[in-house]
Amino acid sequence: MTVNTEVETFVHDDKAELCKRLFLQFLNEFVEDGVQNYSTNIQEMIRHERNSFAINFSHIEMHNPDLAVLIIEHYYRVYPYLCRVLVDFALERVHLPQNKELYVNFTHVTTNLKIRELNGEKIGKLSKIVGQVVRTHPVHPELVTGSFMCAECQTIIKDIEQQFKYTQPSVCPNKLCNNPSKFILIQHLSKFVDFQKVRIQETQNELPRGSIPRSLEVILRGNIVESAQPGDKCCARAEPSKMKKKEGSDGVTGLKSLGVRELNYKLAFLACNVESQNRKYTSGTSSTFGSEEEITPESVKKQMSEAEWHKIYDMTRDRNLYSNICNSLFPTIHEEGTKLRGDLNVCIVGDPSTAKSQFLKHVEEVSPRAIYTSGKASTAAGLTAAVVRDEDSHEFVIEAGALMLADNGICCIDEFDKMEWKDQVAIHEAMEQQTITITKAGIKATLNARASILAAANPVNGCYDKSRSLKQNVNFSAPIMSRFDLFFVLVDDCDEVTDFAIARRIVDLHTYFSESVSKMYSTDEIRRYITFARQFKPTILPESMEYITEQYKRLRLKDSCGAAKNSWRITVRQLESLIRLSEAMARVYCQDEVLINDSYFYFKLRVQPKHVKEALRLLERSIVRIEQSDINLDQETQPDSQIIPSSNDME
């Protein structure tokens, strides 16, 4: 029996048809500032060969609130109709290739939900969630709708929707056949899309007290695959859905003989739009309409409003920019404080109650991409990366650790001295080469860990001993110490005037917080300035390089002479640190060249960079001066470093 026929079933949905008509009316009639933006945007999208069209959901709410409510409440139901409207809207304005699929991506969705707030009531509704990406899976093709041919009567059954598993027709629609299982997939009539699973986790500021962060699987399809990387804090917009936990199951497990049934479903999030909230603060390249565009100061400027750019412009001409930024970042911390960025590694060593952890917390809050962890509670795998078995595919995959999640950002490690020795050895490569190499379970990979490490540690005896060297005061190995560019020591000296000032400051903060805390710049202004400043790539002038070389020779000479005869502290790594610090200081002032003094730019831009000298001062300040007693009874224990005069003393 051979009957070659096609069977199509049409279902009329009144609510979806109403939404389709209202959505087309919105696309045709919405005008902003006298311009039909969506008509222009659809042409731009087709020109760049994209198939995802972004629509500001607030525009729909302003134009037709009833349509907005309809989309939110019945998103999963009406979404296919919205995509068909978009195709019709595009065909009226541009030429589309045959069978080209277009997808609607909603932005500025107002229904914000936390991950732990997603429940059965939210299934099928348009929502927005924010979380941090902790794992990404490879991209692979997914069968969305399949067309099948009956193996017995050759009847073609089109558009069989696939629900996260390969689904054949339940029975052949030909009444003369009624074949229940023998079907052949017709690939050229079926629809495939790119598919990727991403696991996101609750951010720290959304986490209730004493709770463990919850995670959620986010399904990415089409052009939005690869739009989020591990460590990104991203915002996903779409609708929660349910999917089976195990492949091949019917969603129900349990012991039938005992009458025990268990629903074997888990919650997933079908995303229509994913936006990285910290991507605009990172360097490198950005993707616009599918093309890689290098981020430059000019491109960052275009993203700012006129008022924001004027503020950035004024900040570049601030004579006290360096100190004002530090005071604005840490308004409640005094006596010591600096914030270094890029690939610099900084360690804060100090007595208890000297605000070391508070420094780390402030940096984590203000940095667009930062990870905070504790050295005592972290292992080598937790800091670098771990190889785990995927629960779905049962294959080994790499799960990112703290340093990998902080790529192009800052990794704040508190209680660094409490780390095990084997865990400190594990981050040697990450601190120097900025990579993590893994060879385990058949996986060999080199991962990027281009993170700056800001560590905090306590002295070995609980109190910093000024009569001993820095090496004798901390429980660090020599390789770890050489990988830190700067050490800052916070000493809690007993002084009546200082103690009185600190006490008054703390009392004022608790009593009149708003009046006692004054900031020159707000956190958002500093973030925007950092966004603009870090795009500069300063070059070192020949005279600046000569000055750096002379100062390095001076530091080596002073470090090698004397009683200690030990040059463990001043090495080539400290020369590289001096270069990085000089470039960072030039970047702070948005300069393209590293200068020795400010004679030229003082008249041109009215600022005082002093890039190299300030970098040298920071490096020398990190080398702690030793206070020797008049009589040294311990002749066997020699100090490991010498008193290094400043550049002013040499002059």
From TrEMBL:
InterPro entries: MCM, MCM6, MCM_CS, MCM_dom, MCM_lid, MCM_N, MCM_OB, NA-bd_OB-fold. It catalyses: ATP + H2O = ADP + phosphate + H(+). Pfam families: MCM, MCM_lid, MCM_N, MCM_OB. Residues 282-301 are annotated as: Disordered. It comes from the Eukaryota. It is found in: Nucleus. Component of the MCM2-7 complex. This is DNA replication licensing factor MCM6. The lineage of its organism: Eukaryota, Metazoa, Spiralia, Lophotrochozoa, Mesozoa.
